């Protein structure tokens, strides 16, 4: 329940309305025990509370897949749509309601397979929204088919002898799309880094693309076991303009490298790293054009004025 605080604001600089975590939580999440999606949901609800996002001004849009159940678990507006179609729905919402905070929740199959065309253009449109790619490297909802990010040789129901094509690297791909403005990577099993990354993404004006390595203990049992148990396998990209971490968290990483997120060539080099996992902010360009800046004109024009404008245009063609 929303808590209304009736305090004397002349003495205490407190808001009249304070949203607690409970104000953002809806029904009990029905993901499997141990699924990384739970940690991401917690991080997002924490962000909503920390930023005091009004639930009625916040929208979560998803496609299809385990991760796409996300809007059901948020007590905000939500749209659980069609497979691969989260991006155009979110763009439509943002185009006509630029005052809303829009989040896109998508999975590796949803984004990088059936939704790949929309993904390319969403990056190019660079509309002000946060995109969270839950990448578990498998189709989970439909019980273990090879996804576009499954590592080579993954045994699945579609490739019982092992997948035969090299996977798409979503960070590498996104850094190659026109007008890219924010690309970051994190993991579901480090709550501090996960939260700090989503927070940084939310602060960015433009489309923030965050790939989250997400555990699926049901269909990819050993998917990230080595990375979870061996901190040496993670490389933390650190910079004063990057993901802001508490010094204690920073010191918990064994491999920390300096990476300036304004350097796209270096970002691409880090995206190509093999054998180890780089996490952090790869690239940020706050100057990239945002398509929403060109579309949100005259939103409050009365209908009579719109009709008059249309009639003026049509009159030009009257015979
Ligand atoms: Fe999570 Fe995998 Fe279960 Fe889906 S199948 S809810 S991704 S653990």
Characterize this entry briefly.
The protein has 319 residues and is α/β, with parallel strands linked by helices. It has eleven helices and 13 strands.
Topology:
Elements: E1 3-4, E2 17-18, H1 37-51, E3 58-62, E4 77-80, H2 86-96, E5 101-107, H3 108-114, H4 116-125, E6 129-135, E7 138-139, E8 145-146, H5 170-174, E9 182-187, H6 191-203, E10 207-213, H7 225-229, E11 234-238, H8 247-251, E12 255-258, H9 264-271, E13 277-284, H10 292-295, H11 303-315
Helix pairs in contact: 1-6, 3-4
Task: Offer a few descriptive terms.
single chain, 319 residues, alpha/beta, 9-stranded mixed β-sheet, 13 strands, 30% helix
């Amino acid at each position: 329940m929303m808590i209304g605080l009736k305090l004397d604001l002349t003495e205490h600089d407190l808001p009249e309305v304070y949203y607690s975590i409970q104000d953002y939580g809806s029904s009990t999440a029905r993901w499997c025990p141990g699924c990384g999606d739970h940690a991401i949901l917690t991080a997002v609800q924490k962000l909503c509370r920390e930023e005091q996002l009004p639930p009625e001004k916040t929208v979560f849009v998803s496609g299809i897949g385990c991760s796409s159940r996300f809007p059901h678990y948020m007590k905000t507006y939500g749209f659980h749509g069609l497979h691969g179609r989260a991006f155009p729905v979110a763009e439509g919402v943002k185009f006509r309601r630029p005052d809303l905070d829009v989040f896109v929740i998508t999975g590796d199959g949803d984004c990088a397979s059936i939704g790949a065309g929309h993904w390319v253009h969403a990056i190019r449109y660079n509309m002000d929204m946060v995109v969270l790619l839950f990448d578990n490297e498998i189709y989970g909802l439909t019980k273990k088919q090879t996804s576009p990010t499954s590592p080579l040789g993954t045994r699945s129901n579609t490739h019982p002898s092992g997948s035969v094509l090299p996977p798409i690297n979503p960070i590498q791909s996104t850094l190659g799309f026109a007008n890219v403005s924010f690309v970051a990577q994190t993991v579901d099993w480090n709550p501090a880094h996960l939260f700090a990354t989503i927070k940084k993404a939310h602060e960015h004006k433009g489309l923030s693309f965050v790939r989250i390595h997400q555990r699926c203990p049901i269909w990819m049992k050993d998917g990230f076991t080595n990375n979870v148990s061996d901190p040496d396998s993670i490389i933390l990209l650190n910079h004063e303009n990057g993901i802001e971490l508490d010094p204690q968290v920073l010191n918990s990483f064994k491999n920390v490298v300096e990476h300036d997120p304004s350097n796209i060539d270096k970002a691409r080099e880090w995206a190509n790293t093999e054998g180890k996992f780089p996490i952090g902010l790869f690239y940020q360009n706050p100057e990239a054009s945002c398509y929403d800046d060109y579309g949100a004109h005259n939103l409050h024009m009365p209908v009579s004025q719109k009709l008059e404008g249309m009639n003026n245009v049509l009159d030009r063609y009257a015979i």
